[in-house]
Structure formats: C-alpha cells, structure tokens
Amino acid sequence: MLYSNLVLAATAVCWSLSVNRLLGLALDLPVLGLVFCLTLLTYNRDRLADYTGRDDQMNMKQRTQWVARHHRTLAALTTGTAIGAVILLALRPATLPPILAGLGFALVYSGRILPGGRAPKQLPGLKVPYVAALWALLSVGIPLAAAGGPWNGRTALVALAFFCFAAALVNLNDIRDIKGDRVVGTITIPVLWGEHSARLISVGLAGLAGTAALGLQSAGLLFIALYVAVLALTYHEDADGLFRWLIEGIGLLTWPAAI
Q1: Which pLDDT value is given to residue 67?
Q2: Phi, psi of 118 (to 5 degrees)
Q3: 3-class DSSP assignment, residue 62
Q4: CB–CB of 44/17 below 8 Å?
C-alpha cells in the first residue's frame, strides 16, 4: 500500500517534470520535492482517515488491514512528510496560492454545506473532477506558481491535458472498484451510468487531452492520450493487478514522452 502511494507521488513529480519541458521552465528541485511530499501526504492522510470507515472496511479489506497493522509507522511517515512539505514551502513561498486553492477544494468537497447536511463529495460523479483538479494543481499549478508563469494559451492547454489525463484515470479506477462501490452504496460514474458508459467517458477525456496535445504540437502527449484510451477500452478484471500498475505508473511514461 505504501509502495503504491510512493508510485503516485513519483508520478506527480514526473508530471511536473513534463510541465517543465512543455513550458520551458527551469528545473527546480525544491518544487519537485514539494510536489512529491504533498502528493504522498495527501494519499497517506486519506488512508489513515478512511481505514476505520465502513466503506473501506467492506470495499478495501486488504488495504484497511495493512493500515491497521502499520498505523503508527504510517502516521509517523505522514508527520515527517508534512514537516518536509512545510520546509520546502518556506523555500518556495510563491507556491502557496495553488496549495491554498487545493486545501479550499478539499474543505468544500468534504464540508457538509448542502441541504440536509450533505457534503459535495456525496454527490454522484463529483469525485472525478475534484481529484483531477487536485492533480492539476499539484503537477501544473505549483511549478507555474514557483516560476511566476507563463500564464498564456499554451499553459491552458497543458493544464487541460493533465486535468483530462487525471480525470480519465480516476474514472478508470472507479471502474476497477465498481463491484465494491455497489456493495457499499458509493455512487460513482460507473455505478451511476454503467461500466460501458464510464469507459467511453474515459476515452472521451483522453480524446480531449489528445486535442490539447495537438494544439501543443506534442507527439509524446498524443501518445499518452492514446495509451489512456487503450487502458480504458481494454481493462479487464482478470488482469486487475497489471492494470493497476499501468495506471499508477503512467508518470514514468509521461515525462520522457512530453517533447
């Protein structure tokens, strides 16, 4: 489980490196370290917060059992990661606005601000754009804020491409979890509209990312868009373990392809 979170954090770093290459930004190691720490902090914190919940205990038994066994170690690592993020933020204070924006999204997403005491996260289908926006803030917003721009049409296309990549993959992960989500009553896009429609949504998001790649004249990003579309069309439950790593390790492909 921890290894998976480390892979996700490494993917966020690779996406940030891709943004650097696409927008001609200078390599900034403290910024990359900040992206890594914030991503790892986010996912580790979520695991600690959710493992005692009914949904995770029913739908993610192996993960919740692992967290229960290693709770103290994971909590210590999360604390250390948070301290590291604060130190790196002090070195690059210009990155504070996108970080605050991400925190604001998280508070609104989880806050019981809707009629009946409901939170926005309980609304069907909202998880995909929420998580995709956080990934865009991490991998695109933070490097741009640290560099002071550029804020132009090319930047908008880069942000669109990575938002769509993240959204397509989050939706694909929900397809992977569709049986468990139905059991616990979590209304994701695949649960709401069916697996076939959800696959087409991921393909459509990959197509939108590919359109952005054409605007950027990036054959590498176009390849990644095709890769995501193929994952969405060919995913099969019998090969779930393989597809999990093909999804989570996408950053390792994105960085060298972003030319």
Answers
A1: 58
A2: -90, 155
A3: helix
A4: no
Give the separation between CA 219 and CA 160, rounded to whole angstroms.
Answer: 16
* Nearest in space to 220 (alpha carbons), one of 256, 169, 249: 256
Burial of 148 (0-12, 13-18, 19+ CB in 10 A): exposed
User: How far is it, in rounded angstroms, from Cα 33 to Cα 85?
Assistant: 8
pLDDT per residue as tens digits for the range 195-235: 999 999 999 999 999 999 999 999 999 999 999 999 999 99
CA-CA-CA-CA torsion sign (68, 111, 166, 258): negative
**Structural tokens at position 78:** 């999360």
What is the C-alpha separation between 160 and 22, in angstroms, rounded?
13
Report pTM.
0.89
Q: Nearest CA to 95 among 181, 16, 22?
A: 16
Element of type H or E holding 165: helix 153-176
DSSP E strand boundaries for the chain: none
The crossing angle, in degrees rounded to 10, of helices 240-248 and 250-257 is 40
CA 136-246-228 angle, 5° bins: 55
How is residue 258 annotated by DSSP?
-
CATH of 2-257, one of 3.90.660, 1.10.600, 2.60.40, 3.40.50: 1.10.600
Is residue 190's pLDDT more than 80? Answer: yes
Crossing angle of the two packed helices 29-50 and 71-91, in degrees rounded to 10: 150
How many CB atoms are closer than 10 A to CB 212? Answer: 24
